[in-house]
Amino acid sequence: MNTPPNPDVGRIAGDPDAFEEFYRAHLGLVRGFVVRRVSDPHLAADLIAEVFLAAIDGAGGYRADRGTPAGWLTGVARHVVAAEFRRQARDREATRRLSGRRHLDADSLARLEERIDAERQTRRLYEALASLPRRDRALMELVAVDGLTVTEAAAVLGVKPGTARVRLHRSRARVQSHLLPIQEVSS
Fold it and tell me: Are 16 and 62 contained in the same domain?
């Protein structure tokens, strides 16, 4: 039996008012997700916009039985950010030549720079997470950094909740073992 899509998600593609409400309700989540992963405020603004455009395009595929709208949108954001990183890795020269970045006003730029500075510690944690296999690192990020439940993160990643719990437990132990020597040295 299919659960009808959440009206806030299902209507965002065709109803500007529904999209505005959805956007306002989830902007903080998306902005936080993006600025924890990038340090360039212009790129962050572009990726935030791309996440919402991708959400509009994918709204018809949202299934409430697979997770909350926030969990679904986190998955959309994860794919958008990963796609950007893949594009950069494949062709850095083309990325440097692109001049189509949206210009930010001084206030917007200052707010993004403040958020980026506030998330500096989180980006340092990503260095410790780099020792994990990609699938385990993604799970750890969704739960520990983005605040999803293990069940929501499992749905985003397409694994069973029990599998996600085991992977998360092992990943936490690995990250702690990598961070402990750093913490002891700085004490």
Answer: yes
**Residue 124's CATH number:** 1.10.10.10
Task: State how far the Cα of 81 lies from the Cα of 141, in Å rounded to an integer.
Answer: 13
pLDDT tens digits for range 37-85: 999 999 999 999 999 999 999 988 888 888 889 999 999 999 999 999 9
Nearest by Cα to 168 from 148, 143, 145, 131: 143
Q: How far is CA 142 from CA 60, 127, 133, in A?
A: 23, 16, 14
Contact 26, 70 (CB under 8 A): yes
Q: Per residue in 139-178, pLDDT tens? A: 988 998 889 999 999 999 999 999 999 999 998 888 877 7
Cα(53)–Cα(141) distance, rounded to whole angstroms?
A: 23
Boundary residue ending a domain (74, 91, 118): 118
Taking the alpha carbons of 157, 160, 163, 164 in that order, is the dihedral positive or negative? Answer: positive
Q: Tell me, yes or no, whether 65 and 148 share the same domain.
A: no
Q: 8 and 34 share a domain?
A: yes
* Per-residue tokens: 18: 């529904």
CA triplet 118, 145, 137: central angle to 5 degrees?
A: 125
